[in-house]
Amino acid sequence: MTATKSKPEKDLLDSAKRVLLLEIEGLQTLSENLDQSFIQALDLLSAMSGRCVVSGMGKSGHIARKIVATMASTGTPTFFVHPGEASHGDLGMITEQDVIIALSNSGETAELADLVAYAKRFEIPLIGITGKQQSTLAKAATVALMLPDTDEACPMGLAPTTSTTAMLALGDALAVAMLERKGFSPDDFHVFHPGGKLGNQLLKVGDIMHSGDELPLVAADMAMSEAIVVMTAKSFGCLGVVGDDGALQGILTDGDLRRHMGPELMARTAGEVMTAGGRFISADALASEALGTMNSKAITTLFVVEGAHPVGIVHIHDCLRAGVA
């Protein structure tokens, strides 16, 4: 590589801005030119009984892998096939129930030829993403999605930049449109994202709450001498006070104990010392909502109710241990 004199920082900053503006222009053109062929591509994906197969070579291959990851995580079963490997046996991974998405800005990528021929031979729907209307890929495709005819951001006009950004955005558009068409919900999203920050933010209260014998519950007519024993044994620093019908009538905390401290405390009942009502949450609520309530109200626990009946309890530490923040 021939050594060249480094540009001043201002010139480099101007160059970076030019790159971003060119890519923004490409995306704007892509958006303006999006037409019915996009809906036709969605129809092919919606009708498939198999899986979506995405393929591309070089930089287009890297974009193809990102499209695969996004579509698979949003409810459209998708996998990547390398064009070179496809020619050496991996075509057998693709069935007539699948839909192929092939990426090539020029539309003439030689390595895609066998994949395109295979699609035609077995009448497998082919969505071509390309920048050339008269290219081999565009002509062979069941549906051709056209990339904008704009300059690459590379000063030599060679390195795939504007075109790959457009490919990536078009893949995102397909994934999100499919998500919306299917009615993909946050619950569905959590099924595919159980780990990491996204998974943590989609945890439900029911996923982390304590239930059954762990619940710190006492009857309203229980003597405080007994109630304190239960409070100590359950280690939540509070009690749920229930009536004869099992409905939650109120909460008894260590704060209530301090407020009622006196010679008669042990002779009183839990129902007499408790704070009526209280803050509750449902098992279907997000754990992040429970954490927000506990933080805003300066409390450390929330009873989980179904109707008026307690089915669980969640402690602020449960949220933090689960990575909810």
Task: Give an overview of the whole structure.
This protein is of the alpha/beta class and 325 residues long. The protein contains 15 helices and twelve strands. The strands form three sheets. It has a five-stranded parallel beta sheet, with helices on both faces.
Q: Give the oligomeric state.
A: single chain
Number of helices: 15
Instruction: Going across the biggest sheet, name each strand in turn.
Output: 2-1-3-4-5
CATH topology annotation of the largest domain:
Rossmann fold
Rg estimate, integer Å: 30 Å
Secondary-structure arrangement, i.e. CATH architecture of the largest domain: 3-Layer(aba) Sandwich
| Residues in helices, as a percent range | 40-55%
Strand content: 15-25%
The ordered string of helix (H) and strand (E) elements is HHEHEHEHEHEHHHHEHEEHHEEHEEH
CA-based shape: elongated
Mean pLDDT: 92
